[in-house]
Write a structure and sequence with these properties.
The protein is mainly beta and 1078 residues long. Among the domains are: 39-113, Immunoglobulin-like (Sandwich); 303-346 and 424-469, no CATH class. The chain starts with a helix and ends with a strand. The relative contact order is 0.10.
């Protein structure tokens, strides 16, 4: 009974509460409806005086709490009751405006703000690839290049536009840069991918950068710290480069632009690398001949080639020519140089032409852009052209009064390159023509006595006449790159939107190399496989005809990204921006190559061959070789799924907080790593001190502190958590038919995970009164952990080492960027200074390198880590000078000068090798001066690299005394006592001594400081304007010239060669161009 009463009371209570709640909801709905019925919506757009949107601009109704923040298109919307208001519009770096308005207002407001004297923060909107952020609200480290700076250089490669105008970014040079051309704030990995993540129009770009037309680029943003880049997660450890291309603007009249330029570059300098004189080399060959050095080569069954000098000496020895004839030949050789012939017949200045046409514009609901590009390049080797066509177009729509936005971008690129001429490779003193100027043969593969002996045996012509092959190669590649990117964005409320973005990308590349019978390669291949029976009849396992090599590589990817953005102003001073989304990517590729023999281009047919049998070589029947198949197949699958979020908070435009997090999963990570899914994250804060009341009277109108901390990552896509193997052609396929062989690539590793890069960034931004002096100073620390490294394992496992997440490095550095505007009247002069300093250190690495690894690392791309040292260093034997008696190189053994090269090598350890310093610049930057007067403009950029060493090349006596021409240092060698006072180049030994040569080539005598200052480039232009010249048929025009790689101004080394270009001279180039805007 009591329970029943209690239950009844409970139900009655609930019933009463529900009735009251419903009445309350109805009342609130009625009030809200009444309130809404009394409010009106104000819409507008804020831009600068050039019509560029100002995302982040603050709009507020005075003496009220009604306010809004402009979105990425500079648009805003706010609700307020009807009445008369003063609208306040502000943006850092722009003059604020007060506009009297009366609500309701049907038309949309178009508000243009004019620039203040501040320039550092004005209208700079940096892009992370997911969102655009006004620079004054950013806490992270960004380097921003606007269109003017991007277009300052001339060339077809967009990434080259970043060189020496971006703080913290350097283009590496030398042999170690082969796999690591660009570094942002040092290197964040050891063996994984070293390159920055490239974002093009908000999506990672997987294709060749040559497919991006620089004329289409509106801006480039480089993300350098964790707060800027961590939203890209496991792919952002090396930094991120965000490329944004042109778009049509809302309510923008049709704008047509045309840009054309031609660039002429020096041909390669074959005389750049010092080479010993031809007479000296002939003298060495004569000495070797007298010592019977070439006897073994003469008697070799494979009939290997011998130099013309040696062939002449053999003919003289065998009585086939007289002494007078031999002397005449040797005199002719001493006066010849094949490099001169190559320069005359093969090389010319390269010419690059570039043409670009673009159209863009838009109305209130539709905007569009279209660009066409054509580039042609004729290389410095004759008859080697390449072409590029690019097409880019897009449409953007605003539907349902801006509630729904839609867009579609299409990008297409086609690349063609053709190699129809190859440089010949002959002896230093061979000539490509005879005395009458007719093409003549040079020695290739076999000695001349053998080639003469087989004439008349029915073989194809076995002579190599290089000049007859100019333009006869048929080696071409063709590639197509295609991207389509549709999107939909639903503006649910003025503060909340939901977007769905998709991109399909594909790249198809095909190669074709046809070697016809006009080419020595083809005739040699057929001849050496030719078979002769007992009756002297010839048969051809490699059929007579052309040899065709083909290859094809096709890749494609799908990327899908739903994303939500929320931006809201609370109480007029609190601005919250939230972004969250997910990204799914599937990238796949397949490739193959094949070879066809006896090919006929007119019929498109070939002849089957016997791949299995081994055939006696015609020149040496004792050597049996199977025919090369050149067949290969490959493929890959790369899948990624990511979840990310970013929160930004702004209080009163003075205090800023940013938070970001991302979780990545991939089919290449181990199961356990994917399950743990440790997110990569960042936190950052900013304080604009100059907005404080106590700073209002200071002469520093812009002063901001920033600090960030967080993690990003890196991935090596060549590894997998699963067992992977590469199947190859079995070496003894003819013995064991249908036998497969596989090479173990990596064993199972369920713990395989992304590399993590922890980064701290502290920064100060400033600008003085009237923008006279502005800059940014940043200190950063990067701690990279879980880096892929190696440790040794028993050979019974099938591998000598195992790769896993074992290594650790650290980098600390400073980036300084400054601008001084000296003059700003009719004559403008400004100076931009970039300075970066860094210190890299390996903290942990399991596998210790060998002494030989370190000694040879100066000329290798692969790093050999040493704990406590930079990843790339210069290591040598300690140098004790030359012997005053013999001119032999000496090192230190137990503290004493020694010439015992066996013991010097045996006693060498990592600890007693001499470490000179980093092989990469530890300080670098540029100083750019810009001048303008009326329509004339001049920009001069000087770059510098400091704090590093390199090892120069020198004479290699071991190869010289085995018949190869040597380095030009031979002329400055030690020849008599006392020479050691002015030379460090050893004497010529009596015989080839590999240990002596190895010691010298790896000694400290060859180490030089790499510090230098370079005149990087100069741009000069004159601009025309219809404002000043009404009769012009175009709105503006600019005639410009550009010179690049203009030379070294100073270097610390006395070495004659460029510290960064030891093998080939950096080629000067000069461009002339015209840009028209209609």
């Amino acid at each position: 009974m009591l329970r029943s009463i209690q239950q009844t009371s409970f139900h009655q209570l609930i019933s009463k509460l529900m009735k009251r709640y419903i009445i309350y909801l109805l009342l609130m709905f009625s009030i809200c409806q009444s309130g809404f019925s009394q409010t009106t919506e104000l819409k507008g757009r804020v831009s600068d005086d050039a019509g560029i949107p100002l995302p982040g601009a603050f709009v507020k109704l005075a003496d009220s709490t009604y306010s809004a923040i402009c979105n990425e298109s500079g648009e805003f919307s706010l609700q307020a009751p009807a009445g008369t208001y003063t609208l306040l519009v502000s943006y850092i770096g722009m003059e604020s405006q007060e506009i009297e308005i009366t609500l309701p207002m049907e038309e949309r407001l178009e508000i243009q703000l004019t620039s203040q004297s501040l320039d550092l923060a004005s209208v700079e909107v940096v892009s992370t690839g997911y969102q655009q952020i006004p620079k004054e609200r950013a806490t992270g480290s960004f380097a921003f290049l606007d269109e003017e700076l991007v277009q300052r250089k001339v060339g077809a490669n967009v990434l080259e536009r970043l060189g020496d105008v971006t703080s913290g970014l350097i283009f590496n040079q030398g042999p170690q840069a082969a796999n690591d051309p660009i570094s942002i704030r040092g290197r964040s990995t050891i063996f994984s991918n070293t390159q920055p993540l490239i974002i093009v129009d908000n999506f990672p770009y997987d294709g060749p950068m040559e497919n991006i037309n620089p004329n289409d680029v509106a801006s480039i943003t480089v993300l350098k710290d964790a707060a800027a880049a961590s939203i890209w997660g496991a792919r952002a450890g090396n930094g991120v480069i965000v490329i944004t291309t042109h778009r049509g603007g809302e309510s923008q009249p049709l704008q047509v632009s045309f840009n054309s330029n031609v660039t002429i570059s020096q041909p390669r300098d074959l005389f750049y690398m010092p080479q010993m004189s031809i007479p000296d080399f002939i003298g060495i060959e004569k000495q070797l001949f007298e010592k019977n050095f070439y006897r073994s080569t003469e008697n070799n069954a494979n009939k290997p080639k011998l130099s013309p000098v040696v062939e002449t000496l053999i003919a003289l020895r065998d009585g086939k020519i007289t002494q007078a004839v031999a002397d005449a030949r040797l005199t002719d050789y001493a006066q010849s140089d094949i490099r001169r012939d190559i320069e005359s017949y093969y090389l010319r200045p390269s010419v690059a032409q570039q043409y670009a046409l673009s159209l863009r514009g838009g109305g209130k609901v539709h905007s569009y852009h279209l660009s066409l590009g054509y580039d042609r390049s004729d290389a410095d080797i004759v008859v080697n052209p390449s072409n590029r066509w690019t097409l880019s177009g897009g449409n953007q729509w605003k539907l349902l009064e801006g509630k729904l936005e839609a867009g579609l971008d299409l990008n297409f690129a086609r690349q063609e390159s053709s190699s129809r001429t190859a440089l010949p490779n002959g002896y230093a003193y061979e000539s490509l023509t005879d005395e009458a100027g007719n093409p003549t043969g040079i020695i290739q593969n076999y000695n001349t006595r053998y080639i003469e002996s087989v004439k008349g045996q029915g073989l194809l012509d076995w002579n190599y006449v290089p000049l007859n092959e100019i333009g006869k190669l048929d080696n071409s590649t063709e590639a197509y790159d295609f991207r389509v990117s549709p999107y939909l964005k639903w503006n649910i409320t003025p503060d909340l939107n939901l977007g769905v973005y998709y991109q399909y990308w594909s790249n198809q590349a095909a190669g074709r190399n046809r070697n016809s019978q006009e080419l020595f390669y083809n005739r040699d291949l057929i001849n050496k496989y030719t078979q002769k029976d007992e009756q002297g009849n010839l048969s051809y396992p490699v059929p007579i005809g052309d040899v065709l090599d083909v290859s094809e590589n096709n890749s494609f990817s799908h990327t899908f990204r739903p994303q939500m953005t929320y931006a809201k102003v609370f109480s007029g001073v609190n601005f919250l921006n939230v972004l969250a989304g997910a990204e799914i990517k599937d990238r796949q590729g397949v490739g193959f190559s094949d070879r066809f023999y006896g090919y006929r281009d007119d019929l498109g047919s070939s002849v089957p061959v016997d791949w299995i049998s081994r055939f006696p070589m015609y020149y040496n029947p004792g050597s049996q070789v199977s025919i090369l198949s050149a067949q290969s197949h490959s493929g890959f699958t790369d899948r990624f799924i990511s979840y990310y979020a970013n929160i930004g908070y702004d209080y009163a435009h003075r205090y800023f907080l940013s938070l970001s997090a991302r979780k990545d999963q991939s089919n290449i990570f181990g199961v356990e790593s994917n399950q743990r899914g440790v997110p990569l994250w960042s936190v950052g804060g900013g304080w604009i001190v100059s907005e404080e009341k106590f700073a209002s009277g200071a002469n520093m109108p812009f002063l901001k502190f920033r600090a960030t901390y967080g993690y990003s990552g890196n991935v090596d896509k060549s590894l997998s958590s699963d067992v992977t193997a590469q199947f190859v052609n079995f070496q003894f396929y003819d013995v064991l038919p249908q036998m497969r062989a596989a090479v173990l690539v990596n064993p199972p590793n369920p713990d395989l995970r992304w590399e993590k890069v922890q980064m701290t960034n502290l920064a100060l931004d400033w600008e003085t009164q009237n923008g006279f002096f502005a800059g940014s100073l940043e200190y950063y620390s990067k701690h990279a952990s879980d880096l892929l490294g190696e440790y040794s394992v028993p050979s019974s496992s099938g591998k000598s080492s195992f790769t896993g997440n074992f290594a650790e490095t650290q980098t600390r550095g400073v980036d300084l960027s400054m601008q001084v505007k000296w003059l700003r009247n009719s004559f403008h002069w400004s100076t931009n200074v970039l300075y970066s300093h860094l210190k890299e250190e390996v903290l942990d690495f399991e596998k210790e390198p060998t002494v030989n690894n370190l000694l040879g690392s100066a000329f290798l791309a692969a790093p050999y880590p040493v704990v406590g040292r930079p990843l790339y260093g210069i290591y040598t034997y300690e140098w004790a000078g030359l012997s005053p008696d013999t001119g032999n190189p000496r090192g230190f053994l137990d503290g004493e000068a020694s010439e015992d090269y066996r013991e010097l090598s045996r006693a060498a350890t990592i600890e007693n090798l001499q470490y000179h310093g980093s092989a990469r610049p530890t300080s670098f930057g540029a100083i750019r001066n810009d001048f303008s007067f009326k329509g004339f403009s001049l920009s001069v950029n000087i770059s510098y690299r400091l704090g590093y060493y390199y090892k120069r090349r020198s004479i290699d006596y071991y190869t010289l005394l085995r018949g190869e021409i040597g380095h030009g240092d031979f002329d400055n060698r030690w020849q008599q006592p006392g020479d050691e006072e002015f030379t460090q180049i050893p004497s010529l030994p009596a015989s080839a001594d590999s240990r002596r040569n190895s010691f010298y080539s790896n000694s400290g005598a060859l180490v030089e400081k790499g510090d230098h200052i370079r005149l990087n480039d100069i741009r000069f232009s004159y601009s025309f304007s219809k404002v000043n010249m009404p009769w012009l048929p175009f709105r503006t025009a600019q005639l410009y010239t550009y010179g690049n790689n203009l030379g070294i101004l100073w270097k610390a080394s006395d070495d004659a060669l460029d510290p960064d270009y030891q093998l080939s001279r950096p080629l000067r180039s000069f461009a002339l161009g015209l840009k028209l805007d209609f």
